[in-house]
Structures are given as C-alpha cells and as structure tokens.
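A quick aside before the break. I want you to see a complete sequence-to-structure record at least once, exactly as it would be stored in a machine-readable document. Don't worry about memorizing anything.
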Amino acid sequence: MTFAAFPTLLPIPEAARKYGLAVERIQSLIENGRIKAAMVNKNLVVSEDDVRDEAAPLRKEDLPEYKMHSHLKGVGIGIKEASKKYSIGFSTIFRWYKKGLIGEVERAAVQGGEKILLDESDVAYCALIYRKIGGQGRRVFSENGLPYRAHT
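That is the input. The structure line, written in tokens, reads:
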C-alpha cells in the first residue's frame, strides 16, 4: 500500500485559511456530506482534496491530462475511427458523446445519412482517463467530466 492512496487531512481553521473559505462554510459542507471529516487526536480534520474542490471547482480543461491533448482541439474524428485508434469500444465512445463528455466538431453528410465528427482532444482525454481508472464496469467520470473519485 502506498501513502499516496491516503487523503491529506487538515484542521478546519488551516483548510479555511489555505483555501479562502469561512470556517462556517466548511462546517456546513461537512454537515451536508460534501466534505469528508474525521476526528484525529480530538481535532476535527477535513479532506484537503474535498476542500480544494469546493473552493475552486476544477474543469476538465484545467487538468494536465486534458491539456496534453490540446493540439487535437477542433480536430474531427468519427466514432468508428476513434474506437479503432484508441482501442475503446464504439458503444463506450458513443455513450461518452451522448453524456456530453465528448464534444462534436461537425456533422458531415455521407451516403445514406450523416457522420458525427467528435472533438479528438476530448476523445484522447477520455481514453487516457479510462485506462488510468480501470475501464469496463467501473465508473470513470463524474458529472462534470473529471475523473471519478469515490467519496467513501
């Protein structure tokens, strides 16, 4: 077991000072279950990751994993081509598209209908996170497109 798997815990006053939140706001977030807290040596401590997320919610576009594919922003790729290139099932990529995790660049007319061209930077990001988290049968993304982090 590695220590990286354990969350960093901070006393509430330190977390409030570090992230610019009022102590009362942090206490409210604890009561609402949005921030995990624990008692350590008779002191209430909170998860630094949770406080950071509440203080300045991240967007997937802010993540290094997303930025590393910025050169692909606006490049269109079909779902079938993306499935083949990134070795991820067609239905998985289509589901990410329907959920809004992958943007659409354009729709191109093809014989018998139209072809959806996805933003390849979104596809590459999703593929990377999918591989990091473990893939099939596991929740990979939160509602806002960030890598899913279980709140246990």
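Two observations worth writing down. The longest helix spans residues 120-133. The CA atoms of residues 86 and 127 lie 7 Å apart. We'll return to this after the break.
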